Amino acid sequence: GVKMAAHLSYGRVNLNILREAARKELREFLDKCAGTKAIVWDEYLTGPFGLIAQYSLLKEHEVEKMFTLKPGRLPAADVKNIIFFVRPRLELMDIIADNVMSEEKMRSHRDFHILFVPRHSLLCEQRLKEQGVLGSFINIDEYILDLIPYDGDLLSMESESAFRECYLENDQTSLYHTAKGLMTLQALYGTIPMIFGKGECARHVANMMLRMKREFAGSQNQILPVFDTLLLLDRNVDLLTPLATQLTYEGLIDEIYGITNGYVKLPPEKFSQKKQGEAGKDLPTEPKKLQLNSAEELYAEIRDKNFNAVGAVLSKKAKIISAAFEERHNAKTVGEIKQFVSQLPHMQAARSSLANHTSIAELIKDITTSEAFFDNLTVEQEFMTGVDTDKVNSYIEDCIAQKDPLIKILRLVCMQSVCNNGLKQKVLDHYKREILQTYGYEHLLTLNNLEKTGLLKPQTSTRNNYPTIRKTLKLWMEDVNEQNPNDISYVYSGYAPLSVRLTQLLARPGWRSIEEVLKMLPGPHFEERQQLPSGLHKKRQQGENRTTLVFFLGGVTYAEIAALRFLSQMEDGGTEYIIATTKLINGTSWIKSLMDRLEAPPF
Fold it and tell me: pTM of this prediction?
């Protein structure tokens, strides 16, 4: 597993330390259950776990079988221990009870264990007790997997319902997990001296962290701080950014195909190894699954570029690679041939990486050059620049009339609402009526959810603050340079993500310069200083960058991550950013998490 995670240690902060700590705890738990084992997985956990441990680690600890958690009997397995790896959800407890009872009917002498991820739950234990199986478990433990390293500068909790819980259900469990995760991080990387925040959830997390720190006051953290600053940002401070179509390479891959736990599934026909003219009878039917992270040199270079700048890089790379392969004709002496052969594996990897990304770029280009994509983007950009945001939009009407996917409609209507600080009641009612008549009345709950979270709402005050916010924070840049950007707005071809602009201004000149705008955005803003034991104060060298951890509560998009990486790389930027979040999101997955269907009436 060492090679697999090397890219986690390239950055400013070695995130492999976090991964190793998680692996160590997993080994310790597995060793508690002596003998051969089968793991029964809650399917949602397999992706995040894959980033911590491969099957080889489990095998070293006598894990012989893996099953997916489902009702009924467990598949046959000649093992001593059955371990359930599950999220603390009541409906999963019923399935476990079903499994255990079927096993006990067969009188199989097995030891049962449960590992709750990321936290233990008394409610779940209670449910197992009601089902009469609590006594069958030898170990009931928790595995605290809060922040999972996704890349050298990126951590995610992959908690898919965090935004929904915080803003819809008023449930602060995910904020508690966040605070706990940040305490784990400080235990490994030192106390973070400065905490800044904006938003209600940010305030809650900071309060919990400070309270937890007081409770551990006896044990002083003696690690020299790696991070200078923590910035906690509520997603609802910037509802606009995730609604916009991301225009970076990685952002578009996510918008079109969806990236899950660092993997993307792509249409297979683009990747078949068939030569021209061969019979196409055995074209692959399984989607092509590719891993995407900075361990791949080419991907690290192009992921954060505006898609319009990717083509040039790929053709330049193609020339370099074919020239490198041509070199073999010049290799005459044994030494030269040896030299060439030693470089072959690297060259072949580079060639296959180039082939993959050329195929992906072609797939994406087919979409981005379509009329539909252009029309949609044009309307987004009109809304962002404040054009006609206060009346019913004819493009949205047309999309509803031709029954475009509902999520596309919701993203646009929410965007119009956010850019207008709410819609006039009659405009809002018109949209709602059209949507319900076309897509069905069962979407009434979804519309209510969008209203509760502030995404789609009636205008309460006559004053629309958005133009002021846009101008003061320079959220729209007219002449954006997509090839060699000089500003973060390149990630949306003109729109600078509000969340990242706030981050940029905090570093310099500081938030005091934008007090007025901060007051217009939801939730309090604050700063807290955490006391360090004497002797741990960093002496910053001349020209040494600060390191800031930006934590997005409620989700972050790949375009925002790209914008923060751009700031980290700026020559005179002075700050390097590490990004953490409750979940990696895009507009589609985000809106989907807020959708509910009314069940059809039973008559």
Answer: 0.93
